[in-house]
Here is the input.
Amino acid sequence: MSANPHRYTNSQLADIFTRIADLLEIKGEVIYKILAYRKAADSLNSLDRDVNDVYREGNLTEIPGVGKAIAEKIDELLSTGRLEFLEKLEAEVPPGLVEVLQVPDLGPKKAALFWKQLGITNLAELEAAGRAGKLRSLPGMGEKSEARILAGIEALSRRSDRTPLGKAWPFAQSLLDLLRGVPGVKAVEVAGSLRRMRATVGDIDLLAAASDSKAVMQAFVGHPDVIRVSGQGETKASVEFSHNLRAQLWVHPPERFGTALQYATGSKDHNVRLRELALKRGLSLSDQAFLKTDGSELLCASEEQVYATLGLPWIPPELREDRGEVQAALAGELPELITRGDINAELHSHSTWSDGTLSIRQMAEAARARGLKVLAITDHSASLGVAGGLSVDEIKAQRKEIDAVQAELADTIRLLQGCEVEIRADGSLDFPDQALSELDLVIAALHVSLRQPRSQVTERMIKAIRNPHVDIIAHPTGRLIPNREGADLDMEAVLGAAMEHGVALEINAHPSRLDLEDIYARRAWQMGIRLCVNTDAHSASDLDMLPFGVATARRGWVQARDMLNTWQPEILLEWLRARG
Ligand code: DGT
Ligand code: CA
Here is the structure.
């Protein structure tokens, strides 16, 4: 079958629907339409197939969240390269307002207010209005919120152009698929910070093993989404895609692939350590081979051979940051890192009771289908109005539904009723102790007033940790990658309190969070603090974000035993019961 004339990647289509949702929201469209576009965007982002293939098969409406109206829009884009609906919308709502939404904590309502009251249509105009003190007198604004917006604009301009892991990873997989299909290619791998699973990456580094580099180079620079070829030699090429995404490909003969992959995976500092070890053995290690003192080369087809030549076991890429991994490897003390397969439980998820997209029953089935044995439904508490937080009465009603679904699903999965309880600005929790004590699991979280001064926000967090009903602190800093910095917590103090009160800390697996960060995860288990990794799922596909959280845990040297989610259900339940 022939390819459709206009190719879009899944994430490019998702971005278009997010843009539509943003514009509609600024316009003041009814919420369900906006949510439909956001849902379609989420779904496209987490789709495990190329949308162009699904389109050719005529199965667009089988993509979750893609109904007839959205399928027609995808059809129009893929067949014409344009979307009339979006063009009309952009004629109505200034498209520059979408970039205004990038300012931390500035939502569509505010953007609409600035536009309608002051005629502001882009970020530069917003900044000028803020500097002229024109924002403070608008309804719901004040001097403080004006200053916050200016600070937010400044933070945006400082923002690095790194790409979130959650965006780079699926795109890199699609590149790998393309390159694997090229005749003569023996192997293709991701390298660089992406293989090390850093939360953000500067670029996508790819490596191919092939005796002849021509065909694979051609396929790479000829990728339909490439907007610029920034460098091309015989064995190396660099390209740019839209959204400031850059990638480079090295091609090496198969017999040198191990050395090349090891070099390109880095990190630079890890490589420096390896070169030092090589020198001690009378070898010099380059990006291609070991060089012996007699001038002859020692080639390694696999990474294992590179490490073995240095007297080391293979070191998992997530550890290669020069944080003691080479010393540990020399001493035979590398940790046995946690894997996806160790995870039995999802302890943080949302249903339609608050802002999730699936019913409790649907969430339970989705979790079960992914091999989980325990699922905690932890909808938001009342004060998080934007997320449809639950009142104490609603929590009671929800318990009945959970019990009913549990009865239906019998022992195929164990359901827990929890709550993601808001830590209010003063550190008190949203629910009275009595209500908390009736839940199986209490997760406390910061969502609002994140910009409090360090001492205040730290004290607030510690107050929540001290509450005897709190079992887990969700996404501790509240950061959102790439746009929102987390709260300025004194992490030493927070970790100290978590240790003292036996509260577990979450590594939120969603690629826009990855919070707790790797270095604090490592510090936490060293202090004896329990960790857990949760997807914070609002949909079935969110559950598939788990590997990003597991990778962050691995970067923190976490082993299965450190993590609540790996425990057998009875042991986990016993731990929760004992905490009251
Ligand atoms: P990024 O892209 O900023 O997220 O970080 P990386 O680690 O992917 O770094 P990048 O893309 O500059 O280079 C990819 C790998 O190539 C890096 O991890 C190690 C290797 N590399 C690059 N430059 C050097 C160097 O000057 N010395 C050594 N030993 N290795 C290098
Ligand atoms: Ca890189």
